[in-house]
Amino acid sequence: MAKKVRVRFAPSPTGGLHLGGVRTVLYNYLFARRNGGDFVLRIEDTDQTRFVPGAEEYIINCLKWCGLEPDEGPHVGGDYGPYRQSERKSLYRQYADRLVKSGHAYYAFDRPEELETMRERFKTPENPTPQYDRNVRLEMRNSCSLTLEETETLLEDGVPYVIRIRMPENETVTFTDMIRGEVSFNTGLVDDKVLLKADGMPTYHLAVVVDDYLMKITHAFRGEEWLPSAPVHVLLWKYLGWESEMPQWAHLPLILKPDGNGKLSKRDGDRLGFPVFAMNWTDPKTNDLTTGFRELGFLPEAFVNLLAMLGWNDGTPQELFTLTELTEKFSMDRVHKGGAKFDFEKAKWFNHEWIKKLPVEHYRPMVSAFLEAKGIAVGDEAYLDKVMTLVKDRCTLLTDFYEQSKFLFETPAQLDLDAVKPKWNADKKDFFEAAANEIQEATSWKAIDLETSFKALAAAKNIKPGEVLLPLRIMLVGGKFGPGVFDIAELIGKAETVKRINNALQQL
Ligand code: GLU
After folding, report:
1. Do 263 and 254 touch, CB atoms closer than 8 A?
2. CATH 3.30.450.20 fits 417-507, yes or no
3. Which CATH number among 3.40.50.300, 1.20.58.100, 3.90.800.10, 1.10.1240.10 corresponds to the domain 87-252?
4. pLDDT at 266
5. What is the reported pTM?
6. Could you tell me the distance, in angstroms and rounded to a whole number, from the CA of residue 483 to the centre of ligand 1?
7. Which of the following is catalytic: 89, 266, 455, 461?
8. pLDDT band at residue 49, thresholds of 50, 70 and 90?
């Protein structure tokens, strides 16, 4: 029987969730759903110096907002918990000890200043930051260079130590990446990574292997930046005797800066004026706020869709996909090897398409919140839905609903009368006075009937409708924009329409 597919997203809770991270979540999620598998969230918090309070909760909320909820995780539990590595601390030592016993790892007693001395001593112009590797191993204070007795004495005396992997001299480690095909590394070029720290905490390298094994992970998808660590992980799987259980790897392509030059960073977003994090993130140390896609007015459907397309397509020109469609169509073999350039204009295009595509009830609460935050009293839902339906084609971001619809809730505070005045005359004044009276008496309050009678009045007064439509718009909206002017009148109602016309007439 084939093994049940199990995948994991394994973030370190160090800050806001970068869109590359959300894309990793998405590909994991799609793969799990497509294959009837489980999607696990594991918090990799073994590096306590980088731990940021609130980051875990933030990650969980981002996943919730995107609709990419894990089947197992610290917040929902599951059969393979705990799902926070810091709570699994006692599990890891036995595996580090096993590696020492089999000769694949060793105790290293070097103090920070000894490591510094090594770096100074072995520094060359070609190698400005020497690593702790096979070239320096025997020059350092560890169980490879010391005698057995010396090592035992240090251990008995309680001298602090770390456990490092002993990378083989000159072997080739090969594995098959689902995106890149066969990938090979020479072990001689990789340093002796720390596996267990002096405080007994594992490092990422040990913990990721142990946990992927214990949690029965079958496929491990992560960013391309982890590719250089893969040989260490492959060797650990082998040395721990779990080679046949090793997950299949896929290293996802980087998301690149808009010009294609390197990985997209939060700083690029700040510099170029677009978000890089899924949701607002406030750094608890500095209190710096970084705006997220959500708060900028992106729909989760659009955000997920645009992320899916950063590195994947289904082989057709189709670009708009629901999550269900993505689940049906996604496959790892169509993920590109090369990095995907991030294009904010394209991201906005996706959002615009999704605003048009979804029924307004679906995102009414979000629009309502944006409007209320701007001080608009949105009124009842039926009215808000009508407003949203009328203006949604004009909105690229959900926040655009404010500018595009505030005149449907409030009398405009200012009218762009400069656009009317140059061509204003007594005939027009007379026309609008008559129009206001006629509107007052109107028996039907439908846009189409309003338009008919407005145009008939213009014809009766020998005025081209084109000459009075712009003034009418400015009277009702305040400026030269917005949806059909009679649709606007229908929505704001008879009394308000008359009031706005009369108000403008007084200013002209
Ligand atoms: N904790 C690692 C990270 O942040 C996870 C890498 C992996 O998935 O193996 O990004």
Report:
1. yes
2. no
3. 3.90.800.10
4. 87
5. 0.93
6. 48
7. 266
8. confident
